[in-house]
Amino acid sequence: MKIGFIGLGNMGGPMAANLAKAGHEVTGFDMAPVEIEGVTMAASGAEAAKGQDVVITMLPNGQILRAVANEIVPAMDNGTAFVDCSTVDVESARDVAKQASDAGLLPVDAPVSGGVGGASGGTLTFMAGGSAEAFAKAEPLFDIMGQKAVHCGDSGAGQAAKICNNMILGITMIGTCEAFALADKLGLDRQKMFDVVSTSSGYSWSMNAYCPAPGVGPQSPADNDYKPGFAAELMLKDLRLSQQAAEAADADTPLGQAATALYTQFVEDEDGKGMDFSAMLPRFEKRGRS
After folding, report:
1. How far apart are the first and last CA of the chain?
2. Is 261 helix (H, G, I), strand (E, B) or coil?
């Protein structure tokens, strides 16, 4: 396919590179000067989007997505799939999807899970919203960039799934870090704690696959001084999106609210910015009961 890819940062760059390696003709654009192996760089987003079979965006937030859509939608040919892999608010996703659909395009909101490692390794999970026709056109590309793609429903459903998933992730990571900090104070060896919890009812992805305790379980950012695989400020962004959605839907999410408040404090008032979201463990280690 001929593919335009707009937003070639830590996530978008490796995703575009994987598409090029698979033999697709990829034209990219980013506001920063970047070079991606196999990707031809364009001078603007509109230039990158013109004449393509599929246009993919990976952008920081809904406001930027709306601005980019205003630029590229008029440049895209009728029937082009517009696949947005950004994590944004549901309202922005649905508004941009309507804008694209009204212009004769096939919109898909397809946020990802798997972080930078998943983007580089082509092991991302895509949560997609849009029509069956739009999903079918994008699915072969999801197979290259990831290991799983789930068609969650109509436009906005992909963002809804991502927001709900990451609210669970934020809550479970805090609970995992609290438990390790408590185990320390009770004199319980961390490896023994992991051996019990990872095979018992406390099992979770935060414990088993991304353990926040250095030297325990599979390798994770905890073993690299908490350099981010998924930065705390990105977790905060997603938790805030979850609470924005919860407010709009009149959903009671007290643990989601509590997790948002804790990550806000960690990122904005403590030393969490630039750290992995699992660095909550050393935070709790240093604290007593208030």
Report:
1. 58
2. helix
Single-letter amino acid, residue 62: G
Residue 56 to residue 84: CA distance in whole angstroms: 6
| 185 is known as an active-site residue | no
Per-residue pLDDT tens digits for 31-57 = 999 999 999 999 999 999 999 999 999
Q: Tell me the Cα Rg of the chain.
A: 20
Three-state secondary-structure class, residue 42: coil
Q: How far apart are CA 234 and CA 11, in angstroms?
A: 12
Tens digit of pLDDT for each residue in 161-196? Answer: 999 999 999 999 999 999 999 999 999 999 999 999
Per-residue tokens: 228: 């981010």
pLDDT of res. 252: 98
Q: How many CA atoms lie within 13 A of 154 on its CB side?
A: 5
Q: Following CA atoms 71, 157, 203, 199 in sequence, which dihedral angle do they give, to the nearest 10 degrees?
A: -100
**DSSP-derived secondary structure letter, 24:** -
Select from 97, 87, 12, 92 the least CA-distant residue to 56. Answer: 12
Is 37:8 a contact under the CB 8 Å cutoff?
no
Token pair listed for 76: 């895209």
Q: Which of 137, 162, 192, 237 is catalytic?
A: 162
For residue 222, give both structure tokens: 């905890």
The fraction of the chain above a pLDDT of 90, given in percent, is 97
pLDDT reported for residue 15 = 97
